[in-house]
Write a structure and sequence with these properties.
alpha/beta, Rossmann fold, 10 helices, 2 domains, single chain
């Protein structure tokens, strides 16, 4: 039984992250760990809400606000616990109270997969996708990361983005190893090639040999054009809810597709779950 972790901000609870985590835990027989990030530097109120020079009851007000946050966080933990019990899952709960990014990266050392909402910020402010928190997390995580949209849609198909780079093959390997219960779903491997290039996928013979052992029923699609302009339109026309796999290489450096905003488009515009894995 593999161990997956799902990260939550107890002050802005992501129900979709919970739903994806429960779906995959049931489908693939995972032990699910809820990581509740209770960063001591982060609360629901801005500091100036509790500080007024003329307010002699500063300490009392601060305590009320802190108690409200503690209650909100406890309610989210209880909701997670109840949902896991209802789903009949094996689960654990970790309440991490230090710096959120550091705590979560450390947790990934001992996990097979991390699930996190794409809009997670662990701050008061809304940010464009991918947020700084997500970018930092993706560059440092020691396990594959499934970045999920705000709305849960049960995955019905796997889309494997393959550009011929080792990083994209590694991501497909990790998907096969980690989410081994999903191989019964339809699988499509997609490559984007320039108009002047061959219509075959890169390293055609070796890739087909590899895929035969991991996803023997996968179909192959080659799109002629640009990844950022032609691939999103193709994905948008999919009739089934897709889970997309994207490669990344090296700590601190994301794949060619990510740097060209492909991941931004998939998360922001297409709102699809993204499985992202590092290669060394």
């Amino acid at each position: 039984m593999k161990k997956i972790i799902a990260a939550f901000d107890g002050l802005k609870y992501s129900r979709s992250a919970l739903d994806y985590a429960i779906f995959l835990s049931r489908y693939c027989n995972f032990h699910l760990v809820g990581i509740f990030l209770e960063d001591f530097t982060y609360n629901s109120y801005k500091i100036y809400d509790s500080i007024r020079k003329e307010d002699k009851r500063l300490n009392a007000k601060a305590k009320i606000l802190e108690k409200r946050d503690a209650s909100a966080r406890a309610a989210c933990v209880s909701d997670f616990e109840a949902a896991c019990q209802t789903a009949g899952l094996e689960f654990s709960i970790h309440r991490d109270r230090n710096i959120a990014t550091d705590d979560l990266v450390h947790e990934t050392v001992f996990a097979d997969l991390l699930i996190v909402n794409s809009s997670e910020t662990l701050t008061h402010d809304a940010e464009k996708l991918p947020t700084r928190f997500i970018r930092d997390l993706l560059s440092d995580a020691h396990a594959p990361v499934l970045v999920v949209p705000r709305q849960f849609k049960p995955p019905e198909k796997l889309v494997l983005l393959y550009d011929g780079e080792p990083s994209s093959v590694h991501a497909i390997k990790m998907l096969s190893y980690t989410l081994s219960g999903l191989e019964t779903m339809p699988v499509e491997i997609i490559s984007v090639r320039a108009a002047r290039d061959s219509s075959h996928i890169p390293e055609n013979k070796l890739m087909k040999e590899f895929m035969k052992r991991h996803f023997p029923n996968a179909s192959n699609t080659v799109i002629k054009g640009s990844a950022t302009s032609d691939l999103p339109g193709y994905l948008a026309k999919q009739e089934k809810n897709c889970l997309v796999t994207l490669g990344a290489y090296g700590r601190g450096a994301l794949s060619r597709w990510f740097r060209e905003s492909m991941a931004d488009i998939i998360m922001k515009d297409l709102k699809l779950p993204l499985f992202i894995a590092h290669s060394k």
